[in-house]
Amino acid sequence: MYKCKYFDIEELVPKETLDSIGEAESWKLIDEKLLEVIDFIREGVGPLFANTWKEDGKFSYRGYRPKSYKGGAPKSQHRLGKALDMHSEKYTAEELRKWIKENKENLPHNIRVESGVNWLHVDVHPGNKEKLYFFKP
User: Fold this and answer.
1) The pTM is what?
2) Is the distance from CB of 124 to CB of 82 less than 8 angstroms?
3) Which residues neighbour 66 within 8 Å (Cβ) at sequence distance 6 or greater?
4) Could you tell me the CA-to-CA distances from 76 to 37, 58, 90, 129 in Å, in that order?
5) Which of 13, 50, 76, 101 could form a disulfide with 62 if both were Cys (CB 3.0 to 4.6 A apart)?
6) CA pair distance 47, 69, nearest whole angstrom
7) E strands present in the chain
8) What is the DSSP letter of 54?
9) How far apart are the C-alpha atoms of 35 and 115, rounded to whole Å?
10) Is 19 helix (H, G, I), strand (E, B) or coil?
């Protein structure tokens, strides 16, 4: 099992999920390929932020989204633990996407990246056959 280097479980699942099933079971909800990808990006660009409910309560559903979550697409990769939305205090979302594009050959897995939004969405959709695929919401 891959051990995430830079993200705590609170950044990847909402509070209600962590409270209901605990830390060990919550980690099992997150795809290991996604963990490797977000660690790779974090190593390249520095601190990234996902869920912040533990600190300021602003973001709770940027990673895994349980069935009880009413927003987003019903077939979203977030619901499968295969997607994460992040932001940087140093770089814009567009600068982060540019960095990923420039370093795509070193990505540990094929990823999809959402374009045209002010956050960085990455996912490891199993149907994606390209090293890096940009899509619009």
Assistant:
1) 0.96
2) yes
3) 14, 16, 17, 79
4) 18, 21, 28, 18
5) 50
6) 27
7) 83-86, 111-114, 120-123, 132-135
8) T
9) 21
10) helix
- Tell me the H-state helices in the chain: 15-27, 32-45, 93-102
User: CA 55, CA 100: separation in Å to the nearest integer?
Assistant: 28
State how beta strands 83-86 and 132-135 pair.
Answer: unpaired
| Alpha carbons 52 and 24: distance in angstroms, whole number | 20
Give whole-number Cα distances, 66 to 2, 98, 117, in Å: 22, 31, 23
